[in-house]
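Before relying on records like the one below, remember that each one covers exactly one chain. Contacts with other chains, cofactors or solvent are not represented anywhere in the record.
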Amino acid sequence: MADKSYDVVGIGNAIVDIIARCDEGFLTKHDLDKGFMRLIDAGEAARLYEEMGPAIERSGGSVANSIAGLASFGTTCGFIGRVAADQFGGIFRHDIRSLGVAFNSEPAMDGAPTARCLILVTPDGERTMNTFLGASVDFAPADLDPDMIAASRIVYLEGYLFDREHAKAAFREAARIAKEAGAKVALSLSDAFCVDRHREDFGNFIRNDADILFANEKEITTLYQVNSFAEAAATVRHECELAVLTRSEEGSMIVASGDTIEVAPEKVPEVVDVTGAGDLYAAGFLYGLTRGAPLAVCGRIGSLAAAEIISHIGARPEMSLRDLAKRAGLVN
């Protein structure tokens, strides 16, 4: 790849994660189903926030987590997402920039407030998530940063955002800008429910615009409406240049033209919280890819990053991923 200012630029939901501990009684009082995620409106988000205990507030969102992981590897990266001109928009901006990530998106002066996810952690480590998507769902072509996209080696798009027509238009425009500038386009399918709602549009985007696809087993079988992972892997081989398919405790598979590479999962003493495992796998894989590592090594770096994230609560690394990869002998 030609010299670029950014290794990877992510485009996705700009969400503030608000993480607080609570007891079982708090969940019962607010009629919350333990361990599940639900969508809420602005009013409920405000009421629940007022009643939560002391919290950690930081930038979140699927691709934002991947970009944070890439920053931990020491890559130069950026993020594009829609926030409002409000308290939480300021928190998102400050937090993601504090990681060394470029974030130049101007806050929206009207429309919905900044998205947030209120995460309640009970003593057993279970996370109950209440998500207000807010300003992020209004993402449109006008929210793109063409200069940042053109200056990237890889543009990484979040499937969660692919839910409204103006966001789909933004993805196609981002892909056009990237391709004209010689950048690769990567897409995460994000969620099987998203895939089920937009199967045809996802399929067209993968065939016509994406170079690299990230998906888990459920997402890829849902995309192709098949019952077996093997069928889905065989189909995706003809759809894009490179497909990276994760399978939880069974590891991952990399499908590239004539090659199929199976990667074993990294062992962890205890699985504490699987939130963000796919996001950090993508971070590790993309890090290896931007460094010219063989695909098998990219997969191993991805597995290593995923293992670090599931060993503790939260979707952000608690140690330098670059140091971790160096100790494992995967990078110099």
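The mean pLDDT is 92.
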